[in-house]
Amino acid sequence: MTDHDYRDIRSAVARLCAGFPGPYWRGLDRERAYPTEFVRALTEAGYLASLIPEAYGGAGLPLSAAVAILEEIHAQGCNAAACHAQMYVMATILRHGGDEQKQRWLPEIAAGRLRLQAFAVTEPTSGTDTGALATFARRDGDGYAITGQKIWTSRAEHSDLMLLLARTSPKDANAKHTEGLSVFVVDLREAVGHGLTIRPVRTMMNHATTEIFLDGVRVPAANRIGEEGQGFRYILSGMNAERILIAAECIGDARWFIAKAASYAKERVVFGRPIGRNQGVQFPIARAHAACEAAALMVDKAAALFETGAPCGAEANMAKLLAADAAWAAAECCVQTHGGFGFAEDFDIERKFRETRLYQVAPISTNLILSYLAEHVLGLPRSY
Amino acid sequence: MNIVVCIKQIVDPEAPDRTFAIDPVTSRQDRNRLSLVASPFDLNACEVALRLRDGLGGQLTALTIGPPEATQVLRQALGLGFGAGVLLNDPSFHDADPFKTAYVLSRAIRKLGPIDLILTGCESGDMAGAAVGPLIAEELAIGCITYASRISAARNGLEIHRTLSHGYELLHASPPLVVTVISDHANGPRLPKLRDLLASAKQPIPVWTALDIGIDVERFAVPPMKVKECTVVVTTRERACAWIVGETVQEQARDLVRRLRDRHILGSETRPS
After folding, report:
1. A14 touching B, CB under 8 A?
2. Closest listed residue to residue B39, CA positions, set B3, B15, B12
3. Does a structural domain hold residue A196?
4. Which end of chain B is more exposed for a tag (fewer CB within 10 A), N or C?
5. ipTM of the complex
6. So what's the pLDDT on residue B221?
7. What is the domain extent for residue B52?
8. Could you tell me how far CA A33 lies from the centroid of its own chain?
9. What's the gap in Å between the CA of B122 and the closest CA on chain A?
10. Structural domains of chain A, count
């Protein structure tokens, strides 16, 4: 693509999304069902392989293209959370995996024959404190036996492979708690029923998240990514991409809410005139629009830095914070503009409202982003 | 088989009614700041062409007349798998009526060389004239079949599935031929693959002027504009709320039927019991 805005890609994504209108998502939401047809359409069109290099069968596009794709999906009223990880989880293999591992997995992922969209890091007792992980991978001959528990591992039931972070040396044996962690690719097709159990966790929105129990799960040493004990560093390098891409989804959500609110405010006539003539209705929508556009600039900046290989931790975190806030403010004003209809399922607003609430918390809480900025950007004392 | 599909770029017909406006100077739809898309029936024509190519092989070319931004619809066709796209752009092409449009397109088609099949939408998604396809056939002195939904290979030619008001007919025809295409479940536009989109973005799109297709601009008054728009008016819709009256449900039903009949929504043969 030559144009920075990826206009052709956005337009094609919008046409794909037109085949999955509100009733499709409402039906899934009611049943807490996985959007299999939508994910298949994205896969077949090649969007989920957009970041995989051409040498491995992907499109070899920069991160900003994935930003455009995810933003457009959400701006069209769809939701990419069911499959967005397929875009970026593979980056850990791409950056830190060996040649044999890349050849084994990446072309299959690019072709859509292999799903890698589960990323097991968080544990019930660790929360965001990754150094407190307790899941342990014990060396056992030519492999590892992994025992422990993970939570908030989304899409595990709809993935063939799962990236997993586990301790390979005791916490106290390392100078820092984030040392001694290793990354593994767990083949769920073999592991489920052989020590690995997936338990779905029902949440306030349709997100296919799960809890995972591991009891001596065998993983070949050939499935360990990079060096033993360096896993935290490998995982961190992928987190900036994750934050930027999820920020893009928030921008898409915000644009959907704002367009919906502005449209309704123009058409809804009460007391003989459109409600959009009232500044009390106009101003929150206008403010949400301004916040959305400002956040979008930060997403663009973070993506541009990421693409040049420059440090972008602060920008990626700020993009996620600002975009999540903009989406939430837009959701709030959209409900308020619609009055009672904002709560009616048929308007899709209450569903999107629940969905976008997630991004105040995941994949990283806004509070942790503020702590990061305070400590690492502003030099203030560590607060936790 | 060499196939040409003529595509028109129009204002998105899905855009809200309130965005529709007529430019008072040109008496044409105001396109400023509006989303422009390929006319929907033309995309059905693209799908018919792609299916034929998938089965028979051959070369697909998309043609459009318009300003530089109209290359967007050509890129869309390239992203779907067309081999080439040509933009026809010249000041003398502006504000063409269907006769002039068909003349320009037919000149471009002649320049492309021997063509087996020329497809257009059955009508454009904005002005709905349904004239350009048959007029291209007239210019090229070849046959024309309108309102087709499917085309397949048949012995010694093509089999064309043509839709009628209460059914369909199957026609056999030999190329070269113009066929206009309707929207049908059998020709819903496919979705592009990301890799094809990326490849299409790099593909050069030639721009042909009047001179390039052998039109003498000085004499372009021939063929003269045969149709002139006098006035285009945007109709307004008003909503009104009426109460159905009656003491009983039966009386209310009778009142409703009477009102529907007064507005000719129900025919006179529909009598309340």
Report:
1. no
2. B12
3. yes
4. C
5. 0.79
6. 59
7. 2-221
8. 18
9. 22
10. 3
